[in-house]
Amino acid sequence: MKPKIRVSLVVFAFAVIGLLSYLKPQPLKSVKPTNVKDTLSSSQLSFFARIGTGVSAGDSLVRINQTSGSAPSITTSNLFVGDTIAIGTSGAGTGNSGPLTLYTVRDIASTASFQLNSGIGTSNAYSFLSIIATRSAIHTVSFTPQSNITGGFWQFLIKASSRTGEVYNDGIPDQQGFDLGATTPSSGANGLGTRLKTTDVTCPNFGAGTTAASIGTTVAVTTSAGTNYYHVINCALGAGNTNAIGVGYSVAIGADLATGSQLINPSNSLGHVEGAADNSDVYTFYVRHLDSSQVVADEDTLQGKIALVEAVRITATIDPTLTFTIDNTNVGSGATICGVTLNSNANNVTATQVPFGSLSLGNFNDLAQRISCVTNSANGYVVTAYQSGYMKNIANGITIPNTNCNTGCNVGTTGLWTTPDAAQSEWGFGMQNINASYTFSNITAGVGSSFTGAQFGTGAANATVIMRNNSTPVITERAFVCYRLTAITSQVEGDYENKVVYTATATF
Q1: Does domain 29-42+137-307 bear CATH number 3.90.70?
Q2: For 78-103, what is each residue's pLDDT tens digit?
Q3: Overall fold of domain 47-133
Q4: C-alpha angle 37/310/60, rounded to 5°?
Q5: How far is residue 320 from each of residues 108, 313, 377, 382, 500, measured CA to CA in Å?
């Protein structure tokens, strides 16, 4: 009997030990997720510089402090035209609690200075005030779970700063991590970035109730390298839900800035080498698995790295252009220009010569040239014309008068010129538009009885605007200039000559 009693006691002892082992809380055992990465919509570092010396109120040119160690950014590298910048304010309430004034960068003058869209304010014109341009990004964290916990959580930790003097949620870029953003960013509040909202975090869909996200306060993570702090973003699987194993998921932390919020990228560290993402500009993030009580699962935490660097400024210069030409295109003999048919001498017209030859006395003698202009100027171009003097006999100086037209015309004013004056010879011009935005006298082709004429002004001071466009032309703009000359039978014989000067000017 005794041996049997001993065996029973031994069996009972093992049963008790097994029951106690079952009832004792066991640490969660799990497997790390794979394919973990954080893809940023922009990996550009934020800009944080300080105003240099020699800046006065009203100046639009701002110099930055280039002393090594004075600020994370000591050159204008990573600052771009069109950036919204915030400049600190001198006086009461400055520092982390002080207001910022917003400006827009108009131009990058050099590595040491940049141009604002307006003069700097009196309260901002002090050396060593901060100059901030925030860069922010949507973090898309991808991961493939290798374990599941019913009703658990997936947690994402993004590096935050614990550096003395830096606040992890004031909207001002930090040197040691991503800033959560300010509560109400404006010119009278802290920083530029809106604080990250839970509605701007898109969690994986594990089933009903899994899209809810929470953004907690920073949490400390201690490793062999020391203790660091992180922003906490939680995604709940939802009661009774589990995630698939071996299937990729992702969470989007942040949304389009037009309507949403994003984490603010860090500025570079002091002593940073531009263009190099060294150790101080590479940040750790974590993906962690939690149970339904939000206890971190053993061996189910994986860290990844994010590298940030300056954006590359690509510059190019398109030189101002202006092209003006005079030619004889479509002005040959028999062509109808300005409503009249050109005579046989039209075939001898060139870009520099308008040879009327022997005039038909008592009649209109008509020749023409084509002018063309194009520019890349935002303010367009203007073409003017003037004559050096009257049509003059080169042997004796006798002149042919400028036309008065039949209804009266002058320099800058037009009139109908449809019949030759029987009492005096006359010289003048008209125009026919081809595709220009504006010409001095728009003649409809084929209406010879309505020729509109005018006088050339004498000398540059009396030049007439004959063609223009006040904005950038879409294409090369063209018009015909029609030269008209009459001579009465008593006009002194000989060779007559004049000079017309065209000037094309673009406004840049």
Answers
A1: no
A2: 999 999 999 988 754 444 445 788 89
A3: Thrombin, subunit H (2.40.10)
A4: 140
A5: 20, 22, 7, 15, 26
